[in-house]
């Protein structure tokens, strides 16, 4: 798990010189291709104009939040209305109650947890507060969803901040992404390297996880960061873990398990959990409905998996 650890703090200090301003991506980060044509050095030849490449969306800190121990973001679903209570998304292992056990699902728990809301430049825009933990689990995925006392419209009016939109479709292999940490005020830029059938860490198992290319060297405190697709500007996953020491399927050392049961360990590689299917689990008024058609989130009482 990518919670704040002593090692993470040391890493941050050592890397501070390279992170002035908090927005620099790591060396070797994926770059948006330069589509400018090279000027011809010979007689001009008439050619059809090339199709324009999709423009990358500007990725900022607006809408991200800092928790006491992790990162997160204010998110809205495609079905959300401006006057719905806003939602904050982070990891299940970032809960103040402690990490849920395998098979444990928490629903509609009262909460007064506060979140520091960031503006585009990673400045403190204000504080938003939860009224309840709408959902939290570390089974199949690693997510917590808090309902706030403020609506989307109120947050925009008071702080000038729009919520990040959750994508409703499966992320694509090779897509350029940024992992935006409100805790560290730091952005990691890379690409989706592929997807993992099962990702195992300690007692937990996650399904269809996102594997980053090596450039996203996330550290403790980045847990819960939104993973933002450069083309759409939407949240496509939630950052949650990485293999730190080369261990096999242990805490802080997740392993990959394919459809045949073959285990692969990738030391130094980091992972996220997909979020598109969350959009199927909320109804009118941003109300959680785990029995809604298409909802794949684990339900309470499902037991260990």
Average pLDDT over all residues? 86
Shape, per Cα inertia axes: globular
Approximate helicity band: under 10%
| Parts with pLDDT < 50 across at least 5 consecutive residues | 5-52
Q: Look at the helices and sheets and give the structural class.
A: mainly beta
The total count of strands amounts to 16
CATH C-level of the domain at 64-166 and 278-286: Mainly Beta
Could you say what the CATH architecture of the domain at 64-166 and 278-286 is?
Answer: Beta Barrel
Largest sheet: 6 strands, antiparallel, barrel
Order of helices and strands: HEEEEEEEHEEEEEEEEE
The CATH topology of the domain at 64-166 and 278-286 is given as Thrombin, subunit H
Radius of gyration, taken over Cα atoms and rounded to an integer in Å: 20 Å
Describe the strand arrangement of the main beta sheet, using strand numbers: 1-2-3-7-6-5
State the separation between the terminal residues, measured CA to CA.
19 Å
**Proportion of beta-strand residues:** 25-35%
Number of helices: 2
